[in-house]
Structures are given as structure tokens and as C-alpha cells.
Amino acid sequence: AEWLRVRLRQACPGTASVVFHSIVWMYLAPETQASITETLQEAGARATDNAPLAYLTMENGGEEAEVHLTYYPGGKRKRIATTGFHGKNVVIQLDV
What we know:
- With 96 residues, this protein is α+β, with helices and mostly antiparallel strands.
- The protein has helices spanning 2-7, 30-46; strands at 17-22, 53-60, 65-72, 76-83, 91-92.
């Protein structure tokens, strides 16, 4: 959480920042989850079209993993794919 906070402390104009994690969220302590969530919300609030932030996750969705993308500015979260665990059988769900 602290490593991420340092990296996202300020936006870099002309650069998109991407945060990704895969099958890790459930292993993090609640206070670590809260710290990461706070860091992402703060960084998202600073994001601009010239310095966007993309938060991409692949986490347990029950029978399979779900891939979600949250894009800032805006902070809209959307499921973009489902997959078997360990990346098998990816089904893309983009409606661009």
C-alpha cells in the first residue's frame, strides 16, 4: 500500500498510470485494502485526460475470475472480461 501511495503521489502529464492486480485482494488485510482504496481514490481525483489513471483487476467472481477496469477521470468501473482462474478461457466483454 505504501509503495503504491508513493508511486501515485502526483500525476505525470502526458503519461497514463496503470495499476493492476490479479487474485490478491482477498489475501490483503482489511486495513491494507482500505489504504489502497484511499490511494486510488485520491489519485483518481487528480487524474486528467492528459494524465489518466486506469485501475485493472482480475479477482474472484465466484465460479470464475472477473476482470474490471476503473478509468479516471470519471472513476467509472466496468467488468470487461471473465476468465477461468489462472487466465484460462478469457471472454472479453467490451462494448466500446
